[in-house]
Design goal:
Layout (H helix, E strand, L loop, with lengths): L2 E4 L3 H12 L5 E5 L10 E4 L2 E4 L6 E2 L3 H8 L7 E5 L2 E5 L2 E4 L11 H12 L2 H4 L7 H9 L1 H16 L19 H10 L11 E5 L5 H11 L3 E3 L3 E5 L4 E4 L4 E3 L2 E4 L14 H6 L5 E9 L9 E3 L9 E3 L11 E6 L12 E9 L5 H14 L2 E3 L1 H4 L6 H24 L1
Parallel strand pairs: 1-2, 1-14, 2-10, 7-16, 14-20
Antiparallel strand pairs: 3-4, 5-9, 6-9, 7-8, 11-12, 12-13, 15-18, 15-19, 16-17, 17-18
Helix pairs in contact: 1-8, 1-12, 3-7, 5-6
């Protein structure tokens, strides 16, 4: 075959269709599970869809991405929302982002947080520290760090926060004491809108419906139950756990590198460095509790509560009842039963200190052997689905250029 794609999540499905659009034939997609969609799959729970890999929404900021995806699920089947996310803190819900909405707290709390922000390193102009926890304090001030950001990150990513780098946080804007004070005085937010400020969600389905349709459109090019065990870099070939073997001109992997067992042709020291790639798993659990809260989702930094996020599905899916919670695997006290609690061992790639160097060398080596990494797991980066689709469309163009050059020579 020309292109062999490993994994039928958003990255693999989008790449396959983008290549087909460009006229590339003989494409095969291998999927380990019996269903496509990866972390964006959905299941019916208590009479309504529930997204079994966490809360996923289609951002509106990339029109070329939405146009691409609306071919498979027309825009008329989507509802458009203005984001309403909240943070549960000090016994109440306040809007996200936190520092822009301090005005929703009582006066004493506002003063306490404002004094802390005024002493933050990014406000006073001190040099940014290297350690993750110190950097959070420098960026947001001690009070927001202690009550919100540090406990929330521990709940999501684990206790060893200083094992994380700060390179992935540099895009966060500095907290402006003036804007925060102005928000408190005027009673309205003065800050840049967060990601997914406006988003689409299906009117009648879970988010997984989009990816199911894209998978069905591939027909026999998509093979299920094919869990990859080996990538052979010498032969540009793949072997699955059931013994099936595939060779291709080009291989694109969207599955976690650490889920693979063998890498013939890869230097031993590079192979060993893959163990430095860390990730977390989550459990998505349904809770039938009814609530009148108007938020789409709620962040929960309180470490006495196991879950770190609650998604109120009735606020973005008409007719749905109850909520679902997202909990890091190690914090979940129940059992995942695939009926109302769904275990996803690969949920969030961790941005550890070692990751950039490992991934740079890995992807450079792989590309030299006609193997490409794509998406959240192929690139080991916390990309949202719209970003993944955009990167798949860009990679499809690169692969087509490779074929053009190859044919010319």
């Amino acid at each position: 075959m020309k292109v062999l794609i490993l994994g039928a999540g958003p990255a693999g499905l989008s790449l396959a269709h983008a290549l087909k659009d460009s006229g590339v034939s003989r494409i095969t997609v291998l999927e380990a599970e019996g269903e496509a969609g990866g972390l964006c799959r959905s299941a019916e729970v208590n009479g309504a869809p529930l997204d079994t890999g966490g809360g996923h929404f289609l951002d509106v900021v990339r029109p070329e991405v939405t146009a691409f995806l609306f071919r498979f699920m027309p825009e008329t089947e989507w509802a458009l929302f203005e984001r309403d996310s909240r943070i549960r803190i000090r016994g109440q819900l306040i809007s996200h982002p936190f520092e822009a909405n301090l005005w929703q707290l009582d006066t004493d709390s506002q003063v306490e947080y404002l004094m802390s922000i005024a002493r933050a390193g990014c406000v006073t102009g001190s040099e940014a520290p290297a350690a993750f926890r110190d950097w959070i304090r420098w960026k947001l001030g001690d009070r927001i760090a202690e009550e919100y950001m540090l406990p929330y990150n521990r709940k999501m990513f684990g206790e060893e926060l200083d094992a994380l780098g700060t390179y992935w946080l540099e895009k966060l804007p500095d907290v402006s004491f003036e804007d925060t004070l102005r928000s408190c005085l005027t009673g309205r937010a003065h800050a840049k809108q967060p990601g997914h400020a406006r988003f689409y969600y299906p009117k009648q389905y879970g988010y997984g419906e989009l990816w199911r349709r894209m998978a069905d459109a591939l027909g026999d090019a998509l093979q299920y139950g094919k869990r990859v065990a080996e990538i052979d870099f010498d032969r540009c070939a793949v072997t699955t756990r059931d013994g099936s073997a595939y060779e291709a001109d080009l291989i694109v992997t969207t599955v976690p590198w650490t889920s693979l067992e063998r890498f013939p042709g890869m230097p031993e020291d590079l192979k060993a460095s893959l163990q430095k790639l860390k990730h977390t798993g989550i459990v998505i659990a349904y809770d039938a509790t009814e609530t009148d809260d108007k938020a789409h989702w709620i962040y929960v930094p309180d470490e006495s509560v196991p879950h770190h996020r609650v998604l109120l599905r009735h606020n973005f899916l008409r007719g749905a009842r109850g909520v679902w919670t997202e909990t890091r695997m190690e914090r979940f006290a129940g059992e995942a039963d695939e009926k109302s609690a769904f275990l996803r061992p690969y949920a969030y790639p961790l941005n550890t200190l070692e990751k950039p160097a490992v991934m740079r060398r890995l992807l450079d080596f792989a590309k030299e052997h006609r193997v490409y990494g794509l998406g959240r797991w192929g690139e080991h980066a916390h990309f949202n689905s719209d970003v993944v689709v955009e990167r798949a469309m860009q990679l499809a163009k690169q692969l087509c250029l490779w074929y053009d050059k190859t044919e010319q020579t």
